[in-house]
Amino acid sequence: MQMLMTEQFLTALLLGAVVAGVPLLLAGLGEQISEKAGVLNIGIEGMMLCGAYGGFVAAYYTESYWLGFLVGGLSGMAVAALMAILCVYLAMNQIVIGIGLTLGAEGLTALLHHFQFSRTYPRLGETPTLPIPLLSELPVVGPVLFNHHPVVYLTVILMFALIWVFKRTSVGLNLQAAGDKPAALDAAGVSVRLTRACAVLTTGFLAGIGGAYMANVGAGIFVPFMIHGGGFIAIVLAMLARGKPIWVGFGALLFGLSLALTTALQVAGLNIPTDVVQMLPFGMVIVVLIIFARHSYLPPSLGLPYLRGQR
User: Fold this and answer.
1) Torsions phi, psi of 210, nearest 5?
2) Strand-strand pairing, 147-148 and 130-131
């Protein structure tokens, strides 16, 4: 009996880590694309929140999770479009604009939720999953790795696809040049602004899907301010990954495990203050930064607007 309970606890903990890690992975991969192009996307938290709200509303009224993910991605992209216009084309401060967009998204989604649902918090139905035959029946790891919504599998495929894109394609080289030496990219006849704008829009779309996954699959409900710093954790993941998507994946799983552990400790009824338990993921961020921050790599032009002819 004790062994069975331990196995169930371990399965639930690892499953929670995957569910919590997927939004971080999507947002982290998006942030990595943006940072490679030289744009520090501090507004990713707001993009995730708008994606969560838009995705939940679409899934709730249409009863289609796929449409929810699409609307969530487009909602995040809408916020990213503002970021691209203000920071890439108007050369405004990326940090200030990113913080402003996040605060604006928090207020907007809370206001829309209040007017639309008042004080009620409707929930979605059971999340559809796609179990992989035979593999999903394995003990412990089966339900954890091989019985999820198809978006989880697509996210993993995206992670490996980005490895190839960054190393083997002209798109990856252009992104790298836009962040390292934008003047050289401009001299080669490629628009630095267009490259950066496309990177920011892609970031917004992926972050929006991550937010929609968090609301529709992870929680089954939208609550104002529900991202709880996930966007900033994604920024840390992208900065520490040294341009390698696979490290974003490992980091997302690690932080997902710490988020799942907070829930597990609360459910277990251990006599630990709630504030201490909820602080664990951010304590993990601090520890990781202390250990790995010196080994991080940031593009030389990160956060700097590009103006043709300016050195």
Assistant:
1) -60, -40
2) antiparallel
On the 0-12 / 13-18 / 19+ scale of CB atoms within 10 A, 169 is exposed
Domains of the chain, first to last = 10-118+144-295 (1.10.3470.10)
Q: Find out whether 105 and 79 touch, Cβ atoms under 8 Å.
A: yes
Give the C-alpha separation, 20 to 253, whole Å.
Answer: 8
What tokens does 58 get?
A: 């679409």
Amino acid identity of residue 76, one-letter, is G
Which residue in 2, 38, 45 sits closest to 210, CA to CA? Answer: 45
Sorted by sequence, the CB contacts under 8 Å of residue 74 that are 6+ apart come out as 54, 205, 208
Cβ atoms of 184 and 177 closer than 8 Å: yes
- Which long-range CB contacts under 8 A does 115-122 form with residues at least 24 apart? 116/57, 121/221, 121/222, 121/223, 122/60, 122/221
Closest CA to 301 of 128, 193, 148, 177: 177
Q: What is the pTM of this model?
A: 0.92
Q: Exposed e or buried b for every residue in 229-255, given b needs 16+ CB within 10 A?
A: ebbbbbbbbbbbbebbbebbbebbbbb
Q: What is the pLDDT of residue 13?
A: 77
Give me the pLDDT at residue 269, please.
Answer: 58
Cβ–Cβ under 8 Å, residues 196 and 37: yes
Q: How many CB atoms lie within 10 A of CB 197?
A: 21
Mean pLDDT confidence for 274-293? 71
Q: Is residue 21 a contact partner of residue 257, using CB atoms and an 8 Å limit?
A: yes
**Cα first-last separation, the chain:** 69
pLDDT at 279: 74
When pLDDT is cut at 50, 70 and 90, the band that residue 193 belongs to is very high
CA 188 centroid distance within chain: 32
